[in-house]
Amino acid sequence: MKIVPVVISIIRKNNKYLITKRVVFDKEDKRFYPLVWNIPGGGIEFGETPENALIRETWEELGVELKNIIQIPKIFSEVRDHWQGLFIVFVSELSDSNAKIILNSEASEFGWFTLNEAKKLKLMPKTIEMLEEADKI
């Protein structure tokens, strides 16, 4: 059994949120395949602060930098098989609002969605709850 701290990068622009279509799945996530939408993020590496992990993960997955980073004051938890993720969620904006999103191999596409539009997507667990918390900020 494993507990993993994970950062989640909710990027907001014009009251829409950046969501990616995931194509690479860890073993604990295989049941969600194929082509499930999610918010970018990933595990915190040893010695990293959550904020540094957020900046690194966002750069690795999207090729963009962030500004106005705010941590949501709620930790989300999800158990999948013998894995438990503790999700530390941040809301931010692109440093350059015209920055080009460059996806890595984990996602096939991205889109900007309102909260109501996101509710119609096939999403990873906890995504709507995280977006609802972000929508309050």
From TrEMBL:
Q: Nucleus as a keyword?
A: no
Keyword set, alphabetical order: Hydrolase
What's a Pfam family this protein contains?
A: NUDIX
Task: Say which domain of life the source belongs to.
Answer: Bacteria
Molecular function GO terms recorded: hydrolase activity
Q: Where is the Nudix hydrolase domain?
A: 1-135
Q: Which family does it belong to?
A: Belongs to the Nudix hydrolase family.
The protein, known as: Nudix hydrolase domain-containing protein
Q: Give the species.
A: Candidatus Roizmanbacteria bacterium GW2011_GWC2_35_12
The beginning of the lineage is:
Bacteria, Candidatus Roizmaniibacteriota
